[in-house]
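Quick start: what a row looks like.
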Amino acid sequence: MPEIADSAPDPIPVVRVEHWLLRSRRSPGEARRHLGALLAGAPAAQQFADIGLLLVSELVTNAVVHGTPIGNKVLLVVDLAPARLRIEVHDARGDREPVLRTAGKDDESGRGLVLVKSLAHRWGCCPRLGIGKIVWAEVGSSATPAERAA
């Protein structure tokens, strides 16, 4: 189950970028390109690159497939601070929260949120002002995912 409370980002990001994405199969790749360019421009941020690129792919894919009705867009918001990367994906489906599920061995989908949960230091879902929801994930807190699970 994602965290619901404590969804506010840290107060002072060094960089905050926003990109509107179409409801398209191409949007996860576009989101990776945007995040990759941001991280490449901040050499100290390379520590977040591998996990951040995977997280943005999974979150945007879920928003496109499950969270965005036809005719709506997805908003990608990235906050980068020296010790943390926060990825937010805003979609128009406030009535549908992300659901962790166990995929069968032959299932071709259904593993994305399990990856998000295992790789992010924190993640969650919260209502979006106006319409929809925000699904977010953070990388770079003081505890590793393994330390949090202990």
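That is the whole record. Residues 2 and 124 are 4 Å apart (CA to CA). Strands lie at 15-21, 74-81, 84-91, 122-127, 133-139.
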